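Researcher: Let's try something more involved. This one mixes different molecule types, so please make sure each is placed in the same coordinate frame as the others.
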Amino acid sequence: MRENSYVVEMKNIYKSFGGIQALIDVNLELKYGEILGLVGDNAAGKSTLMKILTGVYQADRGRIFFEGREVHIVSPRISRQLGIEMVYQDFKLCPNLDIPANLFLGREITSNFFKTLKNRQMESMAVEILSRLKIGIKNFKIKTSRLSGGQQQSVAIAKAASFNPKVVVMDEPTASLAVVEIRKVLDLILYLKEQGLSIILITHRLDDIFEVSDRIFVLKHGRRVTIKETSQTNKDEIIKLMF
Amino acid sequence: MKKYDRQITLSERKKDFVKVGFFESFLVHPEVSITIPVVLLFIFFSIASPSFLTAYNIFNLTRNVGLYGFVAIAQALVIVGGGMNLSIGAIGGLAVVATGYFIQVQGFSPVVAVIIALSVGLAAGALNGMIITKIGVNSFVATLATLFIFTGIIYGITKGYPYTKIPGSFTIVGRDGMWGLPYIFWLMIGTLCFIFYVFNFRRFGRWLLAIGGNKEAARVSGINVDRIILLSHVLSGLFAAVAGVLWVSRMGSAQPAIGQEWLIISFAAAIIGGTSLSGGSISAWGLLMGSIIIVLIRNGLILIGTDIYFEQTYLGLIVLLAVTVDRIRALYYKRE
Ligand SMILES: Nc1ncnc2c1ncn2[C@@H]1O[C@H](COP(=O)(O)OP(=O)(O)O)[C@@H](O)[C@H]1O
Ligand SMILES: [Mg+2]
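Model: All components are placed in one shared frame. Result:
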């Protein structure tokens, strides 16, 4: 048995930007293998809280525990090393690079001796990753700027999910997608949960949250309002808590 | 099951090559669109002037292509990461002065003087990179400032006078050649092969491209953006210094004014060669073609008897043309 049932614990996280208090002593716990929906009004602090977890921002105060150990996530590299990946609101892909280059960005496979990039190997692994996640893209060698929004988001998710992460954070992954594409992304999220990943999903689409999440965390004006089992609550209640 | 997946995907791979039409390919592959004007210009000047296709003129042309090629490489290396280097000419000038000073005044052997000159280029590039990444100024402002700092040092040391006591042996690289073409040209070709390798097969190149494409994405992917930017400026300084040293070798003297005309040429050659001004793209072949175009136009204009005093105007117009094409290319990609 695990001594601690939480994969991530954020304790008393405080963060301000100049005069704006973005987060005020927020506590967040993420269970192993769950999908946690993170909801709140615009500017509630959702993205900031997650960017602190992934090392994009540093909290002014507060502690983070990962698998029971305290960690200091001072850069995105550290969070990646721990096994925390994030899919950003505006897909954080390099538009000028192709899919394999984006998937492997920052962790390219190189030969042992000369450290030469093994492009062929990364390409065939990229093809495998895409087919495993059932992402149907034919021209994986074209620049990602030429992919549709949904395809780009799928690649961004594949990038976050395909290197054995423990936790994947998704910030509004469906915000700029068409309905058909949203369906695919939700299926992808459920598939990742099946694979045993712990997921934090930020979205303003409550339907999506109620469909896929196990628990719902409500943030308001930088403060934690509540955390509820999805089965124990309903949309109206969550909306009331959010505003 | 896994094996099955793999078979499907591998057979699919053949279909996955980008299929574009003839005219589209000009925009998608800058290498294609850039080679055609080179060929046309070559044919045009061959017909227009009988002295164009002489061994002497070709040797001279390719030597200039080599020199400006290094200048273009120095600029392209920072443009690709989304920046620019306004001080490349001044860094080249510093290397020129260092070469002349340590040979003539200090009496060092040319090899030592060259090593010092190249180190000066590395250091100057490192200074640019430090200002940009540590102080957080953008590359335009940072290198504008160092342009003046370095230029002041050049004239402070030389008082504007050249170093002329350069041993004849020093000019071998700059004046001789093999297989009918100058050493300088072959050196540049070798360097372009290195550039090709770096941007296709090294992490550094891949990461610099990523930074030029989307700096934030590169950062959240765990790339140490500052370190890569710094390194790109160090390399830019190095290649600017190489150009400076080669210039001394070609001229047989160290003129402090060398480098003053590099700025516009470096942008022109790099942008024409498919180095997008907004960053994120570079092409070794394009840099070669861009350098050839610049040299052909400068040389050709003289050969067909145009007024050389208008040269800067022509170069400006070429740059304008190049950025317009760059812009069209960007819009084309957006439309997709
Ligand atoms: N980099 C930043 N600089 C200044 N203020 C910021 C920054 N990031 C977020 N904020 C502010 O922090 C608050 C929370 O923002 P954010 O976390 O993006 O909210 P949400 O994702 O819930 O919409 C907002 O008031 C926002 O303006
Ligand atoms: Mg947000």
